[in-house]
TrEMBL record, chain A:
GO terms for molecular function: branched-chain 2-oxo acid dehydrogenase activity. Residues 1-174 form the Transketolase-like pyrimidine-binding domain. The keyword Zinc-finger does not apply. PANTHER family: 2-OXOISOVALERATE DEHYDROGENASE SUBUNIT BETA, MITOCHONDRIAL (PTHR42980:SF1), 2-OXOISOVALERATE DEHYDROGENASE SUBUNIT BETA-RELATED (PTHR42980). Its cofactor is thiamine diphosphate. Its EC number is 1.2.4.4. It holds the Pfam family Transketolase_C. InterPro entries: THDP-binding, Transketo_C/PFOR_II, Transketolase-like_Pyr-bd, Transketolase_C. This is 3-methyl-2-oxobutanoate dehydrogenase (2-methylpropanoyl-transferring). GO terms for biological process: branched-chain amino acid catabolic process; response to nutrient.
From TrEMBL, chain B:
It comes from Pontixanthobacter gangjinensis. The keyword Lipoprotein does not apply. Keywords: Oxidoreductase, Thiamine pyrophosphate. Residues 16-55 form the 2-oxoisovalerate dehydrogenase E1 alpha subunit N-terminal domain. InterPro entries: Alpha-ketoacid_DH_E1_comp (IPR050771), DH_E1 (IPR001017), Oxoisoval_DH_suAlpha_N_dom (IPR022593), THDP-binding (IPR029061). GO terms for molecular function: branched-chain 2-oxo acid dehydrogenase activity. This is 2-oxoisovalerate dehydrogenase subunit alpha. Gene3D superfamilies: 3.40.50.970. Residues 1-26, 415-434 are annotated as: Disordered.
């Protein structure tokens, strides 16, 4: 997936001279996850550069650059470090178009590795997507495959609204089955690994049907798509799995159609449970599909604790938690 | 290890006990005022370094006060910008206009035509004179007390009033608090209510201009109270790191609502001196001296344009009126402060200078003030035809949902329809203009 992200950046920078990539360590070194490797060499220091360790400065400067007419693609090294820049995102980038009635826009794509599974402890593992979904004016994108990572990132960069692009770092180099003791298939061998060369984009707001099924609908995004898929396969459940891809805008049509078809709904995300995005999904399904439901909607999420270090395998919503929820839904 | 002085004497014996310092302004309501401690150097006494000098060469200017207009109403020294009388009269006219505008809008708020207003009385030079030293397409990232810039850039008064009234003529569609203007045409950035956020944005804009090899520079304005925000420090860091063509104007008007400048760290150093630690050029200027303000801004603009780097300018001034229509300064500061302020009033000082030059007189001043008041009155009448706050003549309900995103997503479409449905129930006869 990381190569797909690099490709998308390279391609867009080649196409559009107004794209600027910046962030901590993204320049010469190419980013701590190497997402921007080679870009500075190719596109020059004026367009790919390191920044001070100041998320407020990075996003604040990006707002000004957007107002000038550039299309900045700032990287926040870890989603956990987005908080010092939050005011610039929430009060400024997200609302600039609205408050100036379209006079100024902040067309930026804030890329940031997010989620757990790499023993990153509390400060390198969080999934703060619900925070952004709550903010009017921000779009939130979370790819689950290399193909999507490239297509969605291209679409995000081309979008005139500020976009938060969360990259599930656990699956940068391979998908994740949900087990720590099982070998993981590298992306190269995975069926979702094919990344075509050249330009293609995936519209924001369109979910992907990972697999069709009749027994229940599973709503997931990012790493959880792979975990949910593995559990369903293992349990032999004929589930319809939807990879939401973007949580704002949300593909409500796909969700509605699927839940009305299956009559059951499981929501899986890694972020903490209370007031997580799953709560929103659950409420939407209740509002729109209640009379089609044959079982209560279930949420499988991370726990409402800070992200632990040594016990992260216990925190992560894995096969056991998902399996129990599936059983509960199917029994109802 | 550094031991406590007499640790051996046992617990509690080590004195003095540590103390917290909570800053306290020198004068509170009822106190007589004596500003003798404010050092007002002689006009013309400050050296003017080369515009592309090393930042460090400005260090003495960070603690001094650049002044041009002396008590004799004449211009002095190397900072004299040598403006021609027409330019000075244009400046004076903008002063008069912003004064008339502030008076009228303040009254409008008291009459319930809008919710809120903020005057810039006493600080006219820090916006108007400063902006006049920039090119008209240099980008302004203002705070909320720079209405003078819009006025001097010729933004129509009626548009400003429409915005303040949030009426149906308001180009911002009634979404922003009064005085939070935006005009791309006048290179004036949309004002945020979150303090200091504009400062890193200005730096980003300036960086973008440099990335594109443009010749336009950016300038931002921030209150001295707001320099305590992290954003300001991020702005200084970014400005210095990338040598951004930007001017950071800090308006030290002594008060941040009821908190005096000591709460932003002003007791121990100047705000201009903040520049030094970052490697920015810094200038502390008499903010009530229109010529000095112009000259300092011009110096910084030339420096930025020559790739000499960013400059932080502290405009040492005084907020003569309340913070806003919601504030009563008599509750926290001595009423005498305004009278005793040692740097006088910028409008009077410029007027006296022009009179001294033989280019102006009191009668013309009176006539100009009157003409400005009339012009503002006429614009107000015109704007009122579009409605005042809360009186029906607002933008259609659907506009509330527009511009959140470039395109209206499904959930906002649904909510927009709901708002319109509710309106029909609440106002079956419909409300005018909606
Ligand atoms: C982030 C933030 N915190 C608090 C406020 C409330 N507030 C509005 S104006 C103000 C004082 C600002 O003082 P200063 O920066 O000195 O500017 P001045 O009003 O003196 O021009 C405060 C605290 C705000 N608007 N934004």
């Amino acid at each position: 997936m990381i190569e797909a992200i690099n490709e998308a950046l390279d391609l867009k920078m080649t196409e559009d001279p107004d794209i600027v990539v910046m962030g901590e360590d993204v320049g010469y070194f190419g980013g701590v996850f190497r997402a921007t490797a080679g870009l500075q060499e190719k596109h020059g220091k004026n367009r790919v550069f390191d920044t001070p360790i100041s998320e407020c400065g990075i996003i604040g400067a990006a707002v000004g650059m957007g107002a000038y007419g550039l299309r900045p693609v700032p990287e926040i090294q870890f989603a956990d470090y987005i908080y010092p820049g939050l005011d610039q995102l929430i009060s400024e980038a997200a609302r600039l178009r609205y408050r100036s009635a379209g006079e100024y826009i902040a067309p930026m794509t804030v890329r940031s590795p997010f989620g757990g599974g790499i023993f990153g402890g509390q400060t390198h593992s969080q999934s703060p997507e619900a925070l952004f979904a709550h903010v009017a004016g921000l779009k939130t994108v979370i790819p689950a495959t290399p193909y999507d990572a490239k297509g969605l990132l291209i679409a995000a960069i081309e979008d005139n609204d500020p976009v938060i692009f969360f990259e599930p770092k656990r699956i940068y180099n391979a998908p994740f089955t949900g087990y720590y003791d099982k070998p993981v298939e590298p992306w190269k061998k995975h069926r979702d690994s094919i990344v075509p060369e050249g330009h293609y984009s995936i519209p924001l707001g369109k979910a992907r049907i990972v697999q069709e099924g009749e027994a229940m609908t599973v709503l997931a995004y990012g790493t959880m798509v792979h975990v949910a898929e593995a559990v369903c396969r293992e349990k032999g459940i004929d589930a319809e799995i939807l990879d939401l891809r973007t949580i704002v805008p949300l593909d409500i049509e796909a969700i509605e159609a699927s839940v009305k078809k299956t009559g059951r709904c499981l929501i899986v995300h890694e972020a903490t449970r209370t007031a997580g995005f799953g709560a929103e999904l659950s409420a939407l399904v209740m509002e729109r599909c209640f009379f089609h439901l044959e079982a209560p909607v279930e949420r499988v999420t991370g726990f409402d604790t800070p992200y632990p270090h040594s016990l992260e395998w216990a925190y992560f919503p894995g096969p056991v938690r998902i399996g129990e929820a599936i059983d509960k839904i199917m029994k109802a | 290890m550094a031991n406590r002085p007499d640790e051996a004497a046992g617990k509690g014996a080590n004195k003095p006990a540590l103390e917290l310092h909570v800053p306290e302004p020198t004068y509170r309501p009822g106190d007589p005022v004596d500003f003798a401690h404010i050092h007002v150097p002689e006009a013309g006494a400050q050296a003017r370094p080369d515009e592309v000098c090393d930042a460090i060469e400005t260090s003495s200017l960070c603690y001094d006060l650049v002044r041009v207009l002396g008590d004799d109403n004449k211009a002095h020294g190397p900072w004299d910008p040598k403006l021609d009388p027409d330019t000075l009269r244009t400046m004076l006219h903008s002063f008069a206009m912003v004064h008339a505008f502030d008076e009228r809008m303040f009254r409008g708020q008291r009459q319930g035509k809008t919710s809120f207003y903020m005057k810039c009385t006493g600080e006219e030079a820090t916006s108007i004179s400063a902006a006049m030293a920039l090119a008209s397409d240099d980008m302004i990232f203002p705070s909320y007390r720079q209405q003078g810039i819009l006025i001097s850039r010729g933004y129509p008064l009626i548009e400003m009033i429409n915005q303040i009234y949030s009426n149906k003529g308001d180009k911002l569609k009634g979404r922003q608090l009064p005085i939070m203007y935006s005009s791309r045409e006048h290179s004036f950035f949309s004002i945020s209510g979150n303090l200091a956020t504009q400062t890193p944005q200005a730096v980003g804009w300036a960086m973008a201009s440099a990335i594109k090899g443009d010749s336009r520079i950016a300038a931002t304005w921030v209150g001295e109270g707001s320099t305590a925000e992290g954003d300001f420090h991020a702005a200084c860091t970014f400005a210095t790191v990338y040598n951004a063509p930007v001017i950071l104007n800090v308006i030290n008007n002594q008060w941040a609502i009821s908190s005096f400048s000591g709460f932003a760290g002003g007791e121990r150093t100047t705000f201009a001196a903040r520049a030094l630690g970052y490697g920015l050029a810094g200038i502390r200027v008499d903010g009530n001296d229109p010529l000095a303000v112009y000259a300092a801004e011009r110096w910084a603009a030339n420096r930025a344009r020559a790739n000499g780097g960013p400059t932080l300018i502290e405009h040492f001034t005084y907020r003569a009126e309340g913070h806003s229509t919601s504030d009563d300064p008599s509750g926290y500061r001595s009423a005498q402060e305004r009278e005793e302020w040692p740097l006088g009033d910028p409008v009077t000082r410029l007027k006296n200078h022009l009179i001294e030059l033989g280019e102006w007189d009191e009668e013309r001043q009176v006539a100009m003030d009157l003409a400005c008041a009339e012009e503002v009155k006429a614009a107000t009448k015109e704007a009122e035809k579009n409605g005042i706050l809360g009186h029906g003549l607002h933008h259609p309900f659907r506009t509330m949902f527009e511009d959140v995103f470039e395109e209206l997503p499904w959930h906002l479409k649904e909510q927009s329809e709901q708002a319109i449905r509710e309106r029909e129930t609440k106002f079956p006869e419909g409300r005018p203009g909606s």
